[in-house]
Write a structure and sequence with these properties.
alpha+beta; 177 residues; four-stranded mixed sheet; globular
Length: 177
């Protein structure tokens, strides 16, 4: 399997970012440095929106962020949808192998929630995000009805997973305080 080859070759982390230019490639060194400083953590982009961000998208992501934070008992996820991240490969592959889901728009949210459930702590790093207009070559792959239905189904599943894990998550949370 290709994932096993990556682990065999010594890769320990994977950086993800959207290919549409929204995420600043100039921030990659900062993300990699944060990952090196905290190798057992996941580094999550914390978007800094400018005026190009559609208001509906910014407001809508607050709903998903609230659910993701509830589902992790407020583990510290600043943004659940921002795809600019560094994941520890071993933990991510374990999560992915156990899930038939998280292969489309739901990947980012479900990955971060399930990794938090496994004890992988988030490190949030601010990163600017820019939405390109169609005149500038911006093409959104977000399909309003399909992707919102997918996110709703995902949060429904995660919420019930959260309820099953609640005693364990609460006990872990109490040990930390």
């Amino acid at each position: 399997m290709q994932e096993d080859l990556k682990l065999t070759l010594g890769f320990t982390h994977v950086l993800t970012l959207d290919s549409d230019g929204q995420h600043p490639a100039a921030s990659i060194p900062a993300f990699m440095h944060a990952s090196l400083a905290s190798p057992n953590c996941m580094v999550l982009g914390d978007p800094v929106f400018d005026d190009s961000a559609p208001s509906l998208r910014v407001k809508g992501r607050k709903i998903s962020n609230w659910w993701a934070n509830l589902e992790t008992l407020w583990a510290g996820i600043h943004d659940s949808l921002f795809g600019f991240r560094v994941y520890p490969i071993g933990a991510l592959l374990s999560v992915m192998r156990g899930q038939p889901w998280m292969r489309r728009f739901d990947f980012d949210v479900e990955a971060v929630v399930r990794l938090c459930w496994r004890g992988v702590q988030p490190v949030n790093l601010a990163a600017p995000v820019r939405y390109f207009s169609p005149e500038d070559g911006g093409i959104s792959h977000f399909h309003y009805w399909r992707d919102n239905a997918l996110l709703t189904w995902m949060h429904f599943r995660l919420f019930f997973g959260f309820l099953l894990r609640l005693p364990w998550l609460a006990a872990r949370r109490l040990r930390k305080s």
